[in-house]
Design goal:
Residues 24-151 form the Bulb-type lectin domain. The protein is mainly beta and 428 residues long. It folds into three domains: 6-151, Agglutinin, subunit A (Orthogonal Prism); 153-291, Orthogonal Prism (Agglutinin, subunit A), CATH 2.90.10; 293-427, no CATH class. It has two helices and 34 strands.
Length: 428
Amino acid sequence: MDWSSLSCSACVLIILFLPLGASDDRLVPGKPLSPGTTIVSDGGDFALGFFSSGSMPSNLYLSIWYNGIPELTMVWVANRETPVTNSTSSASTLSLTSTSNLVLSDGADSHVVWTTDVASSSSSSPVAVLLNTGNLVIQSPNGSRVWQSFDHPTDTFLPGMKMRIRYRTRAGERLVSWKDARDPSPGSFSYGCDPATSIQMFLWDGSRPVYRSTPWTGYQVKSEGEFLITNTSAIIISLAFVTNDEESYTMFSVSDGAWHTRFVLTFSGKLQFQSWNSSSSTWVVFGQWPRHKCNHYGYCGTHGYCDETMLPVPTCKCLDGFEPTSTEEWNNSEFSKGCRRKEALRCGDGFFALPGMKPLDRFVVVGNTSSKECATACGRNCSCMAYAYTNLSRSIANGDMTRCLVWVRELVDTGKLGTSTDSDTLYL
């Protein structure tokens, strides 16, 4: 990701049902949680309880939020599609069963609205604990975790969480936006790993891609940015990418003593990196994606690219050897028709190097090759449009230390990134 320093922004949540009391950091069988009580993590950073959205005061949601900051901000909602009823006659409850399951029951008729659905043998002493990371975990008597909320994210990505993709099923976690500022039910936007390749991230509106990250460049852990928050302190963000035989995942961490920090997918379709500023009582937005119109997926059309080095306003350009399909529309900032070749491609033509580029989408990965073999793999296929080759600092799978990407379809969604560490040389 390319990080940008942006103006401060607050994520406003109107809460009409506030907790009245607090308990410790855990839930045990026989002692359910009901509206008006909370569980607070041992370090005091997070709380679990019920809240009511401003749109429907009678609807209650089980949620985890930041504890101790004035702007009540949710990081996880269990029953976002099926709220329980705020009833004065019979209270809704969250209970932990002896089979190590959390069960949320509606107070109106006691039917089960949400459950963790853990397949576990009966135990006399399971416990559900809210950790100071914001992770709600169910633990067996021997301390092993049988379920955790970090494996079921809603709209927020916290330090220590994993955004993963499983190779066998091509399934993984996604952030899903709220419907609007007051309604936690699932919105139309989602963010997660690309199920086709597993080495890049997508932001979707329904099934339509809105934004695409650069493909993984081979790092295991890297410092992604240092953001000055006062004259004497800063937040340092580190990203990690891990692969094994079954899955790959990305996660992030922040420096010790940093403010409350998170990625959140807003209801308006923006992925934001935010930190809480206790001095100004606002969420500071240090990064946002997409950053601008030109950065949206495929904004410059096929064979066009967004030149992000053109400041202050990035603009669309045609790849070398191409020209606007419609010059009139292009000059009027209408780029959807993209670009076309000036001359027909002939099999056996050489390659032109374009350094500092964001690798295109719709690539084919050719593993365990040299730079020369990568060029040959593209050159001998008359349908191949471009290739990119990288020596990786960590293998993707099976000990392979290289990444050869080839494109045999129309070229879409690239950009000129300049000297960014996420950039690559595209051979066109």
